[in-house]
Amino acid sequence: MTASPIDPAGTAAWKNLETIARELAPNFREWFAQNPNRAEQFSFQAADLHVDLSKSFLTDEVRAALVDLARQTNVEERRDAMLSGEKINVTEDRAVLHTALRAPRGSTITVDGENVVDQVHEVLDRVYEFATKVRSGEWTGITGRPIETVVNIGIGGSDLGPVMAYEALKPYLQEDLEVRFISNIDPTDAGEELSGLDPETTLFIIASKTFTTLETLTNAKVARAWLLDNLPEGTGDEAVAKHFVAVSTALDKVAEFGIDPNNAFGFWSWVGGRYSVDSAVGTSLAIAIGPENFADFLAGFRAMDEHFANAPAEENVPLLMGMLNIFYTNFMNAGTHAVLPYSQYLHRFAAYLQQLTMESNGKSVRWDGTPVTTTTGEVFWGEPGTNGQHAFYQLIHQGTQLIPADFIAFANPTYPFATDGQDQHELFLGNFFAQTKALAFGKTADEVRAEGTAEAIVPARVFEGNKPTASIMAPYLSPSVLGQLIALYEHITFVQGIVWGIDSFDQWGVELGKQMANDLGPAIAGDEAALADQDPSTRSLIAYYREHRDA
Ligand code: F6P
């Protein structure tokens, strides 16, 4: 029996936070002057991550009130319910157990009477065995040549995690093996990604939790036709068996598609798509970085899970960061949240987080069907620094909206370049340190004047400061640290969802557009009656398309 959501706005902690927020005048210059220990007091260690929240809006009072709100909305109880396999995904009647995907062999988490950890390791062992065969060249294509390119075909959670992690872990890739990704139903995507590939040395992984997703199935068919058209003759079904594997919870549908069930890797309904990169959905990644590094990746998730499960609320990084996001969104009117990695390898991290956070918490009803009582679901966005600095940071520094931002950086570079005696990574990190400093402490009009600035342009050169940030650092961007970062944001997302009383694990909001896209097929193809049934705007857009498409 799932507990009813608690109305956060009706709690004593919420009322207290309203008062605190009304009276809070964030002033980092003063806060640090009054408390020389502030950096130490609000810096935390979560696994290998050093997380400095001293330039956030945490104060002793704010932290205590946020922890109270977490307690009064049962965040810790819900966390424990999730971790123990309770069916907290109410609208789909499912357990939520991405944490079981990284549970150690031999541990027990039970769903419907079965220990799912055993199943997880059974599949992982098969994925590792397969990855090893592909990497060593033991697995060959139909003409006996080893695989040189793996193409992952999937979308959403069946794409964003693998592609983000593949990009992030480039230093760990096997040299003679490339992974490409096809996701978009725009034929351009398949066209571009297939171009230049040799079908004899290409392996396709069709990744789809449901194995019903139009984009993925369409691209899989395109890939199959491309393979069979371009291979030497007479290699039909046998070629598909050597060049296609699948990852899905719907193994019956995989078989219907014509993929050998022996070449399919399963996962389970209790793994949400956007929480699945550490399941068999990560098979392309396991091939790319190898089983040992993939195991390290999982160990990183696990380390963060343990921190989330065990650290006291006052020092629990995902809990504090999730509650701070509540503070910014619900009490400080922030509508967006920037995530700014100072690592080019993390250039797809924000895109990955967009699905994780926004598909999870972009909801306006609670898990019992009643309307939410507060604002939910901020927009997550970002780009790697320093590129973002030359694009949109202006708005974070001097715009009129409050934009909390997470900065992420690593102590060690992969490429130790130096020019004119200057270590390039230090130049890079200089920017990382400078940005949160500038955002926090700003620059006063007097400081601007002291630089000899003409009075007329002093206002334009003032930096208000007092913009909240979190700084996350780790020694290296290793597979484990990447796992820790992902799990950190998974748990932040969870915490926010619980406070808001929403089911962070369904995604009904994507259904209507999917259904309409299917229904529009006949009208687009020229069925006049179907066209006439459309609303005037859709009708005129389709008419434009039909007029302008070359015959
Ligand atoms: O349409 C949204 C969604 O269901 C995501 O939640 C999911 O990650 C994506 O589509 C792909 O779904 P599947 O893995 O079932 O193909």
Automatic annotation (TrEMBL):
Catalytic activity: alpha-D-glucose 6-phosphate = beta-D-fructose 6-phosphate
Annotated PROSITE patterns: P_GLUCOSE_ISOMERASE_1 (PS00765), P_GLUCOSE_ISOMERASE_2 (PS00174), P_GLUCOSE_ISOMERASE_3 (PS51463)
Organism name: Flaviflexus ciconiae
Top-rank taxon: Bacteria
UniProt keyword terms in alphabetical order: Cytoplasm, Gluconeogenesis, Glycolysis, Isomerase
InterPro entries, A to Z: G6P_Isomerase (IPR001672), G6P_Isomerase_C (IPR023096), Phosphoglucose_isomerase_CS (IPR018189), SIS_dom_sf (IPR046348), SIS_PGI_1 (IPR035476), SIS_PGI_2 (IPR035482)
A GO molecular function held by the record: carbohydrate derivative binding
Name this polypeptide is given: Glucose-6-phosphate isomerase
Keyword Glycosyltransferase among record annotations: no
Pathway the protein contributes to: Carbohydrate degradation; glycolysis; D-glyceraldehyde 3-phosphate and glycerone phosphate from D-glucose: step 2/4; Carbohydrate biosynthesis; gluconeogenesis
Biological role: Catalyzes the reversible isomerization of glucose-6-phosphate to fructose-6-phosphate.
Top-level EC class as recorded in UniProt: isomerase
Residues of the signal peptide: none
Location of the active site: 359, 390, 514
Biological process per Gene Ontology, one example term: gluconeogenesis
Family indicated by similarity: Belongs to the GPI family.
Subcellular location: Cytoplasm
EC number: 5.3.1.9
A GO CC term assigned to this protein in UniProt: cytosol
